[in-house]
## 1
Amino acid sequence: MSQWNGTVWKAFLKQRNEPDISSCCIDSDFGIGILTKVIQLGSQPKKSNPFYEYTILNEDRTDALNLLSFEQFKKLIESH
């Protein structure tokens, strides 16, 4: 049986497109989204997804969510 996680990713992706917010998603469990105005966590998504379509998200999750491993996240935070 597959699990459905709703549409929270849409709210996260919407915030990823805000120019004054930096964000990433730690690739753990079903994803741990981090939003900040303090630390640069990465750039905005390269591909536009104005209607928040799952198929477009699924084409390149790494870019769309700025998907990082926990180790990558720790190194990024330690460098600030």
Note: The chain has a mean pLDDT of 93.
## 2
Amino acid sequence: MKPSLAYLQTRISVDPVAGRVYWIDATKHHAPLNGKEAGSPRKNSRSGKIYWHVKVDSLPIKRSHLVFLFAHGRWPDLQIDHINGDSLDDRIANLREATITQNAWNHKTRRKSSSTPMGVRVTRSGKYQARIAVNKKQIAIGIFDTPEMASQAYQQKRKEFFNEYA
């Protein structure tokens, strides 16, 4: 169960502009932490991304969620998307609510074995094919002579399909 905003306001202070959280009451056993920045970076076991977490009463909470809560007065209903793709940049200007799908659209790179840009693959003929997945459906964008041309076409389609989340 998530702690209430009223309770958290007695334990931490949040600077939404800077995206930082500070201890007000770090408990009697950690009194020297009062006034210092709260939390530490933790690696997500599934994605490998690093997010800043703050432990309040042994409950790890993402700093981005705390910043959102203090800025908007409510816990986020959806996922929190970092607009610039930096999961440690928790400034309120860099945070927005997003569905799982919208959040996935914001990825700048994908894990792949090829050295070609995201959305580009080499065909048997040695040319470069650009393609994109939209709603779990692969859409072929075209065949190009260079990986740069294919990547440019892919990025253009990303903006067309994913708007602000591209």
Note: The radius of gyration is 20 Å.
## 3
Amino acid sequence: MIYCKECKTHFSERKGTVLEQARLSEDKVVSIIEHLREGCGTRATGRLVNVSNGTVSRYIKKSRHVAENFHNEHVAFSPRNQRNTTR
């Protein structure tokens, strides 16, 4: 738990990440994500990490939402690419 001096509240450092409310160890979650990133399928990932296919599917869904939120936050603040209109 982390304490914020400004708002005076406690919160988990995992909030907003794939690890939020994870029942698996951090190593297994990272391993699942790495296998998926390398192109392993759901079944192969489950077999290699020794978890069920449903668990792999849940982390796929969870990581998609985390990545979408991250993308939307950062795209909102990035400057627009202005093309030079003179030829």
Note: The first strand starts at residue 2 and ends at 4.
## 4
Amino acid sequence: MSEPAKIITLTLGELESLLERAAERGAMRALAGDQSDNGCADRWLTAEEAATRLNVTTGWIYRHAEKWPFARRLSRKNLRVSEAGLLRWIAARRPS
């Protein structure tokens, strides 16, 4: 006979945390398939890494990410920014 099913009990907070981590993993797998203009796999920066590159706060990154086509929200609290997209954006903002 088969083994009886085990019942797992989770608090709402634990369940939300598990779902958020699963969504983040799935999104990162999908993002890993993205490629930059040169055909190489793009690197996806955390909000903290992007903020360091731009010398701004992470709050600034989260506020501006909605306008950037090279930023992806993985969940309510997680954001990734394409390194190639960010570098193109920086280059476009520099005076000629």
Note: The mean pLDDT is 83.
